[in-house]
Specification:
It is a single chain. The longest helix has 17 residues. This protein is elongated. The protein folds into 2 domains: about 220 residues, 3-Layer(aba) Sandwich (Rossmann fold); about 100 residues, Oxidized Rhodanese, domain 1, CATH 3.40.250. The protein is of the alpha/beta class and about 375 residues long.
Length: about 375
């Protein structure tokens, strides 16, 4: 028996691809010889990693500096309960190899940074952005422009998402977004329906397989807009900006906010919250919606954020010498409420990290003291 590209097991595993018209053995060989970089192992990275591993991409480099959290399991389907607390990159590698042992994976438990630029070069077949912030996307874009490597972008927000394929010689990410949006949404407070990152991740994986196997491309130099509520899909042709970095080689100046904004001021820790909440001069306020309140709460008065924002100095009948502690799901809305109450002359703070932080702390405490 002569030496072959595929082993007996691989040939059987990939038989549905090999039988596929316009794909066949040639397409599967191209997948096996490809090196794909996946940046981010969250909601988008999970389906991308699983489907490309199952499809037979030969080599992966995966980045993620985060650990698996309980809240990830609602949408990051590559992980399970046993992965909570462990490094995403390493756990993702474990599950990808369990799915397909015939592939090679370099797992880097770190966020993609300028120091990693050397890992993307002419031997890289494709880069997939599965992140949630503009900082990393601009970095991926600039590295790929310099190295002349194609990359796939995807983003999600509540019930909608975007996806685009950027290839050398066409418009780049900076042509589409010369600067980050001024009000980048907070992914903690905005929320996301669990299947949406799966859908957008599958768009990315589908386009990746087509790109790597030389099938016709629909997203090259186009932006796909998907609405999960209406089940509508639109595609927009992209145009090169002559003043863009991809044409001039000079980076534009822009601010770079993170998509998942952190609570910065006027907040207290969970420990301080638990310590102060029962004091006689303290009032706890749940600023979430009625539906959230009914779903789960940790006590306190219920005054929705929108009602608090109508409060002014002239109609302020609250106690000036009382401490008000606001909480919401993740801390963003309660921070806004606390700032407004302070502007009205009241003593107010926000629960840092919100109800999610409180729940995590309570869970750890129960594990230590069952």
């Amino acid at each position: 028996m002569t030496e072959t590209i595929f082993t007996q097991q691989e040939w059987l595993r990939y038989s549905r691809h090999i039988q596929l018209p316009n794909f066949g053995a040639a397409g599967q060989t191209k997948l096996k010889q490809s090196h794909v970089v996946i940046v981010g192992m969250g909601g988008l990275g999970a389906p991308v990693a699983l489907y490309l591993a199952a499809a037979g991409v030969g080599k992966f480099t995966i980045f993620d500096g985060d650990t698996v959290d309980e809240t990830n399991l609602q949408r990051q389907v590559i992980f399970n309960q046993n992965d909570v607390g462990h490094a995403k990159a390493l756990q993702a590698k474990h599950h990808m190899l369990a799915l397909n042992p015939h592939i090679h994976i370099d797992a880097i438990p770190d966020f993609f940074q300028p120091k990693h630029e050397a890992l993307i070069d002419q031997n890289t077949s494709l880069v997939l952005d599965c992140t949630d912030n503009f900082n990393t996307r601009y970095l991926i874009n600039d590295v790929c422009v310099r190295q002349k490597v194609a990359w796939l972008y995807a983003s999600i927000h509540q019930y909608s998402g975007q996806c685009a394929l950027f290839t050398p010689g066409h418009a780049c990410f900076r042509c589409l977004f010369p600067a980050p949006p001024e009000s980048a949404p907070d992914c903690n407070t905005a929320g996301v329906i669990g299947v949406l990152p799966g859908l957008l991740g599958l768009f990315e994986a589908n386009e990746a397989i087509k790109y790597l196997s030389d099938l016709p491309l629909e997203l090259e130099n186009r932006l796909l807009l998907f609405d999960a509520l209406k089940l509508s899909v639109q595609k927009i042709q992209l145009a090169i900006d002559p003043q863009c970095f991809c044409q001039t080689g000079e980076k534009g100046k822009f601010s770079s906010p993170q998509m998942c904004a952190e609570v910065q001021q006027q907040s207290i820790s969970v420990l301080d919250f638990n310590l102060h909440r029962e004091r006689a001069n303290t009032t706890v306020i749940d600023v979430r919606t009625e539906a959230e309140r009914l779903g789960f709460n940790i006590g306190g008065q219920h005054i929705p954020l929108q009602e608090i924002l109508t409060l002014t100095d002239s109609n302020n009948h609250w106690e000036k010498n009382r401490q008000y502690i606001c909480y919401c799901q993740s801390g963003s809305r309660s921070e806004q409420a606390a700032q407004h109450l302070q502007a009205c002359g009241l003593q107010a703070v926000s629960l840092d990290g919100g109800l999610l932080a409180w729940l995590k702390h309570a869970s750890k405490t129960q594990m230590l003291h069952p």
